Amino acid sequence: MAQARRRIARETGVRGARILVVEARFYDDIADMLLRGARRVLKEAGARFDVITVPGALEIPAAVMIAMHGAEARDQPYEGVVALGCVIRGETSHYDIVAGESARAIMDIAIARDMPLGNGILTVDTDAQARARARPTGEDKGGGAARAALALVRLKRRLIRQARSRR
Fold it and tell me: Mind spelling out the 3-state secondary structure of 62-90?
């Protein structure tokens, strides 16, 4: 099996970023680990973040949109989103629907809204795989999703600065 790259740029240029974290609690212990990893990365980067909890992965996209609209109405828009959850394959095709539709919907939001997104929704075959990927001392996919969102926030900020400086 191929190994993921571990070298990720430091989260500079994202201090004060306002990040929305939406976590699905269908598997509480997995959600706890994913959230622990994401919180650590966001705190280390100096980002400000809100955490919203939903029952499962399918509810994440709707919660993202509801929260984004609320934040914009308060003139406190989010600069990025971290989606956390877990879908474990079962005996029916429900896995395929939940995994595919949740990923598609949050990607649609990210593209349509120009919103930096870190997708930390695990799609695994077993509980053991989920734990290995979620554990902050393991693969730390919650932290990885936060790093991905911050990398895109940093990119967006840099490109906006460049565009403004050319005016």
Answer: HHHHHHHHHHHHCCCCCCEEEEEEEEECC
Task: List all residues 6 or more positions away from 152 whose beta carbon is below 8 Å from its beta carbon.
Answer: 80, 116, 117, 118
Strand 48-54 to strand 18-24: parallel, antiparallel, or no bridges (unpaired)? parallel
31-41 confidence digits (pLDDT tens): 999 999 999 99
What 3 state SS string does 117-135 have? EEEEEEEECCHHHHHHHHC
Cα 120 to Cα 137: distance, rounded to the nearest angstrom: 16
Please say if 94 is a catalytic residue.
Answer: yes
List, for residues 69-101, the tens digit of each pLDDT value: 999 999 999 999 999 999 999 888 888 899 999
CATH 3.40.50.960 correct for 18-165: yes
Report pTM: 0.92
43, 69, 94, 158: the catalytic one is 94
Report how far residue 143's alpha carbon sits from residue 130's, in angstroms, rounded to the nearest whole number.
14
User: Where along the chain do its domains lie?
Assistant: 18-165
